[in-house]
Amino acid sequence: MSTDESTSNVDADAEPEPEPSVVDDLHTDEWESEMQALLEDGDYDAELGLEMAKDAQRLVAGELDEADFYERYHEAVIDEFGVDDRPIAEAIEDADGDRDRFMKSLEELENGELDRREAMKKMGAAGLFLGLGTWATKENAEGGPDAASVAGDGEQGEGKQYGMVIDLEKCDGCLACVVACSQENNTSAGANWMYVFTYEDGHQEEENYLVRTCQHCSDAPCEKVCPTTARHKRTEDGLVLTDYDVCIGCRYCQVACPYGVNYFQWGEPDTPESELDYDHVYDGRDRRVDSRPPKGVMGKCTMCPSRQDGKMGEDKVGTTACEDACSMDAIHFGDMNDDESDPNQYLEQVREENPNDREDYPNRSGDTVSTFRLLEELGTDPNVVFVGNEPGPNAKQVEGPVKYEEIGEVDRRKEVLDDGTFAGGVSP
């Protein structure tokens, strides 16, 4: 479909654009040009994908509601893809066929006219599908978020939510996590699902690291723009995954993600399918969501679902390849909703320690322990909590102590292919 055709399909009567906000800080001219070029390399409507990505980010930031997002793009998505299988669309179709009742209930919920229990009664299974049982604004605990608050709204124990605590003060930039992820998942050169930034910041004298993995957001904009349900969130543990057999490679998820963690598989993968372990490709639902993606499909960090489902052995359940490889004990994976899980217990331990006694930490950031979630102001509710320094607006990436070529890896996919494969936000 051409750009002109896409424009004509978007509802002309849709509400005007919201006032500038923190989300708009991502939408610079440079970002828009880069994303436009990225989408134009594909086979689908670039303008539609770009506009949906912007509004998906506004949606999770609370500046646009689900009903408006659905209405604004429904006809255009149908025209471009022949279906509209976005989560909101599927929920509406499942609401006993009564679309008007569903939309009215959703609007009443968002306007504060209904509480969540009332909305769930009216919407039935559709309400559960949309996660209305945990619909609320997440508030950070004083002194920074704890792991449980990442996925919850103060009502803990509402289901398993896998995530990580990553202690940046322990990271030494060795890139062992990068190698382990690449080897376990057979990713193609430069498609680093785990990536370690080394950076300098104006207000910090020391060298710093930021370990970037998929954040497995509780409110993931990448899922909201996917027209086929390929990008989805597992109900049993909250992992955000891509069904390789359903993905059509439109790359809309890549543009909607503010973290730069998505990689499109240009050409044939470095590792042929004949060399893949079947048990590492399919999860416990028999969906093809793990290991490297096939040609023409999106890939990203999965947090090792085949491990979590016991398909790699019982001793691997509750572990990830990157965590196993980290000799500095910087990565802690587990259920963010469980107070007794490794991530929560580690955070509690860190906060009880006297920071001045942590002499084995290469990145001591001062006399207090700080925690943060990456770009939490965007409203995605990421399920990775960092311990240590948060990069400031003037942070500049520099060469790390270990070069990617020294460990047999490639820093950027762009070094392998002429086409760029990184999204905006905090990508390298």
Strand-and-helix sequence, N→C? HHHHHHHHHEHEEHEEHEHEHHEHEEE
Mean pLDDT: 81
Strand order of the largest sheet: 8-1-10-9
Rg over CA atoms, rounded to whole Å, is 21 Å
**For the terminal residues, how far apart are their CA atoms?**
31 Å
* Structural class determined from secondary elements: alpha+beta
Characterize the structure shown.
The protein contains 16 helices and eleven strands. Helix 1 crosses helix 4 and helix 6 runs antiparallel to helix 7 (116-123). The strands form four sheets. Strands 8-1-10-9 form a four-stranded mixed β-sheet. A three-stranded antiparallel β-sheet has the order 3-2-11, with no helix packed on it. Strands 4-5 form a two-stranded antiparallel ribbon. By secondary structure, the chain is an alpha+beta fold.
Keywords:
single chain, 428 residues, alpha+beta, 11 strands, 31% helix, disordered C terminus
Summarize the structure.
This protein is of the alpha+beta class and 428 residues long. The chain is built from 16 helices and 11 strands.
